[in-house]
Write a structure and sequence with these properties.
With 235 residues, the chain is mainly beta. It has one helix at residues 100-105; strands at residues 2-4, 9-11, 20-26, 29-34, 37-42, 52-57, 69-71, 74-79, 82-86, 92-94, 113-117, 122-126, 132-136, 145-149, 165-168, 174-178, 184-187, 196-198. It has a four-stranded antiparallel sheet with strand order 3-4-5-6, with no helix packed on it. A four-stranded antiparallel sheet has the order 7-8-9-10. A four-stranded antiparallel sheet has the order 11-12-13-14, with no helix packed on it. β8 and β9 (82-86) form a beta hairpin. 23% of the residues are buried.
């Protein structure tokens, strides 16, 4: 890797090829998810110039940007053949072994999406274009308790429900959002199909409270990353 002071960036070249799929943080270190490897970038606060970059996993990489989800002192992500949890010591632990046959048979794994529900301690994952799966986090990482969820549909074929990503409001409700097909938001745990409404201009999404540090500390936000897919004008 090289540091170019003028442009202020670190160049990462994966010897196995592939591109950067996403970034995350583990105990102050930056995790760089490549398609065929995982890098650990450590930048000491006392002396940023003494940064270090090392490939922590050479045989495991990430293929789905929307599968990268931080949880406690680790990160969930999707790779070839398995869904992983990257622990605080940067060990990639395969956690989809109990449903490995379903994971391997899922199509378009690169479009896997995931989201953690901290309130009820569970992980929602759609492996590629498969059904929705839920991992119970109350006993994690001692056990991997997966369950398959069937979503309510206005049609007889529940498998027809597809979505682009998951989100949650300021209460405890979880929603799936489809922006390409039927353009609708559906509550995951709704008892009937009546909990569906069409996406309209002016719909607001709020992140809720995001902890940046201790309450007595002053933080400066220098950049916000936002991904938006829409044919409508946005304010």
């Amino acid at each position: 890797p090289d540091v170019i002071p003028i442009t202020n960036y670190i160049q990462i070249e994966d010897t196995q090829g592939g591109e950067i799929k996403g970034l995350a943080s583990i105990l102050g270190d930056i995790v760089v998810f490549m398609e065929r490897g995982i890098y650990k970038l450590s930048v000491p606060v006392s002396d940023p110039s003494s940064w270090s970059l090392a490939e922590s996993n050479e045989s495991v990489g990430c293929i789905a940007p929307d599968s990268i989800v931080e949880y406690k002192d680790g990160v969930f992500f999707a790779s070839y053949g398995n869904f992983y949890y990257l622990s605080s010591n940067f060990n990639a632990i395969p956690i989809s072994e109990p449903i490995k046959d379903l994971y391997e048979s899922a199509s378009s794994i690169a479009s896997t999406v995931a989201m953690v529900d901290e309130y009820k301690e569970r992980l929602f994952v759609r492996f590629g274009t498969s059904d929705l799966f839920v991992l119970n986090l109350r006993n994690f990482p001692n056990s991997y308790d997966w369950s398959k969820w069937t979503l309510n549909s206005d049609s007889d074929d529940s498998s027809a429900i597809n979505f682009d990503f998951l989100t949650k409001d300021n209460t405890t409700k979880i929603y799936i959002v489809d922006t390409q097909g039927s353009s609708e938001i559906r509550e995951v745990e709704a008892s009937t199909g009546d909990e569906t409404f069409t996406i309209e201009t002016g719909l607001d999404f709020k992140t809720g409270f995001i902890k940046l540090g201790k309450l007595d500390e002053t933080k400066i936000i220098r950049r916000i990353n936002l991904r938006l897919s829409s044919e409508d004008n946005q304010a």
